[in-house]
Amino acid sequence: MAAARPYTSLLLVLALLLLVTFSNLAEAHGRGKLRPQDCKPKCTYRCSATSHKKPCMFFCQKCCAKCLCVPPGTYGNKQVCPCYNNWKTKEGGPKCP
Predict the structure, then answer these.
(1) Which of 67, 75, 80, 85 has the fewest CB atoms within 10 Å, i.e. the most exposed one?
(2) What is the DSSP secondary structure assignment for residue 51, as one 8-state letter?
(3) What span, in angstroms and rounded, lies between the C-alpha atoms of 97 and 76?
(4) Each residue's pLDDT tens digit, 58-93
């Protein structure tokens, strides 16, 4: 029975590594770590440098609600949030500011 313990420990460690890997993959495919209530403050900062605040806030909050991620800064850095970056309008332009 004592020989089974190392295998059980090894199996537990492998299962944990697999779980961490899958959670990282899920995040990489577009869902971030924000909670819905975190969207407004993040979007307020994201849209702070634009002269079109109302549409920026509308689309940023819509994108954040779907993706649970807002890129850092007031412009660019969209590669940090693949879902936010890849959501396009019907015309093919970026949906998220």
Answers:
(1) 75
(2) S
(3) 8
(4) 999 999 999 999 999 999 999 999 999 999 999 999
